């Protein structure tokens, strides 16, 4: 059964807390004729971090320096496209229906208006992996090698991206009286109706930042000391990220489609955990030996000038 989840009857909350986390009062700034969104800057910072870390890890395996940039020329755009498609599909009532003009880029709520927010990590993973697979075949690099090299930087990039939700005052959690409750402008469209203006909310962005940052350290340690190779480190990334996302997603207040009692992204996170376990088990059986070379067997490295 498919239903649409939102806060129908939010509880009235009275609190007297000693501290809270303020939200930024601005989400963008002008640079000449351009409007620069902090949301976009957070994502861009994450992409740079992921590419730099992946390059460092790949060059240690013998891949030509900065060849990861060549891979990123297709993988990153497809990741963004996949992220947007996933979001629009799973929130299609926000874009399609009577009185809406989703294809007009100049209209609020356009499917093209990515600067307004609305990209999904699970969609970006699908699109990015498709792009990475195509480019890895071109440069004769094993996809598993690339994904293992990318895993620590990828989860750290996601931590950076979550700060964009803080600037946009979006995707926060249930009301709370905890001292780290998040302040949200009561005039923000995402503020649940019926709650006092001084209500605080779980800062799910911060929970994910902390969880993902710890995950990066765990992945770096596993890759160095237990030699998770043949895609198994990426499998561990899926498990770590998916496990945390199940929790954070379950307490978020933003509307979401619900299938069999769970938000769509909870199902996606569960799928990530299951897929990660499957990758680790299958690749351990198929490849108990170390991954000696990052290159596809029988092919030489393709070097770029």
From TrEMBL:
Keywords: Cell membrane, Membrane, Transferase, Transmembrane, Transmembrane helix. Pathway: Protein modification; lipoprotein biosynthesis (diacylglyceryl transfer). InterPro entries: Lgt. NCBIfam families: lgt. One of its GO terms (molecular function) is phosphatidylglycerol-prolipoprotein diacylglyceryl transferase activity. This is Phosphatidylglycerol--prolipoprotein diacylglyceryl transferase. It comes from Brevibacterium sandarakinum. It is an enzyme of class 2 (transferase). The lineage of its organism: Bacteria, Bacillati, Actinomycetota, Actinomycetes, Micrococcales. GO terms for cellular component: plasma membrane. GO terms for biological process: lipoprotein biosynthetic process. Catalyzes the transfer of the diacylglyceryl group from phosphatidylglycerol to the sulfhydryl group of the N-terminal cysteine of a prolipoprotein, the first step in the formation of mature lipoproteins. It is a multi-pass membrane protein. The keyword Plastid does not apply.
